[in-house]
What we know:
Layout: E1 15-17, H1 36-51, H2 62-78, E2 81-89, E3 92-100, E4 105-115, H3 125-145, E5 151-158, H4 166-173, H5 177-180, E6 183-189, E7 200-202, H6 211-221, E8 227-229, H7 237-241, E9 247-251, H8 260-266, H9 290-308, E10 337-338, E11 343-344, E12 357-361, E13 367-376, E14 384-394, E15 405-412, E16 415-423, E17 428-437, E18 445-454, E19 460-471
Parallel strand pairs: 4-5, 4-6, 6-9, 7-8
Antiparallel strand pairs: 1-8, 2-3, 3-5, 7-9, 10-13, 11-12, 12-19, 13-18, 14-17, 14-19, 15-16, 15-18
Amino acid sequence: MVKSPLYGVLGTALVATAVLVPTSAAQAVVSPDISVTNTKAHLDQLQSIATSNGGNRYTGRPGYLASANWVKSKLDTAGYTTTLQSFSTSAGTSYNVIAEWPQGDANHVVMTGSHLDSVSSGPGINDNGSGSAGVLETALAYAASGQVPKNRLRFGFWGAEELGLVGSKYYVNNLPAAERAKIELYLNFDMIASPNPGYFVYDDNPAGNGARDDLTSYFTSKSVQTEYIDVQGRSDHAAFRSLGIPTAGTFAGAEGIKTSAQATKWGGTANTAYDACYHRSCDTISNLNLTSLDRQIDAIGHMVWNYAQKDYGPGTPPTGPNLLQNPGFESGAVNWTGTSGVVTNSSSKPAHAGTYKAWLGGKGVTSTQNTGQSVAIPATVTAASLTLWIRIDTNETTTSTVYDTVKVQVVDGATTTTLATYSNLNKNTTYTQKTFNVLAYKGKTITVKFLGAEDSSLQTSFVVDDVALTTS
Length: 472
């Protein structure tokens, strides 16, 4: 966390006790238990990197690049699409690590971030290894969970925060306006394991985004009292907030002094800094409160899981001509190739429009089926979206186990990318529209493919209709 004119008073004068308000629909999803053991292991690794690189992970020095490469490798292995974004600073070249989960509506992005760099005087394990380790473990846990997000999840690990939020500012300022507009919410986590912790929730609520109140309600449900705080320009949410993007986050305190009332409420030591090692060489692996870390990372997981499924409304795909032939299957299997019988006019399952559709599964026997179509996306387009309508019914009664799936895929030469996976857990006997950004494939000929897999127990029917690939 960067210093500011508030240095020495933040955490006392600018806070107010949070008031519990009605929660939003974002809390409908069960919250995960993010592993504090795994998160602590990430912090051990960041300490090891600092120890091997002059005792710090400061921008422009080897310890920072080693940290960025290590985080990127973990996310790569988990299946994220990752980018190491370089930029120049007064201390030398720095890097942002940007990771995106390749599912969910790319027109609605929920972004979570933390700064990865330390100050030059120490390894920065609480500031801000704690936030970065928590965000990293949440991203890894989501990848391993089998969840299918409604919205696109993106994670940012910022460089050069300690130089004045340079990395996060560089990122948002270099996003085209249309891409900025797709970010529905940015969540920031900076210093979440302070050794004498407070439980502060950012008092940022532009346009009534509700995320602040959802964080407050979550902590209240765990019998943890919170206080609102305006950290102003001291962390990376400021770069997003300045552009009107809704933000929220948590903070366990820095150099500010814990009051007697706060010590009564939260425990710890009154009249002492939340983190006496703030921006000092003693901000090491020993400078952590694991109870605070555990509570805060579960709050991160709660927000990511719930806002991944928040209904932000339908996407806005381009309105140009459909590049797919026979997109509603009304000419049967013409222009589509794959498993015989998938394209059908059977009256057992309704079409979205007309009588034909692609029906995958529905047999209750171990099988795989597919159908797909090759399509060329012009190199000159500036937007490209794949949309489809899908209906899912199942005889499976479980609410927790995936037995049958259908995948929406793009085949690009020898590479197959799964844009989304739906299962028996996504039962919905009315058609819903799904939208995917496929601009990355401009200038290529790809195959849009639907791949169904069913086990030998009860049937699940995945019915797809009215597919479109439009560009502008």
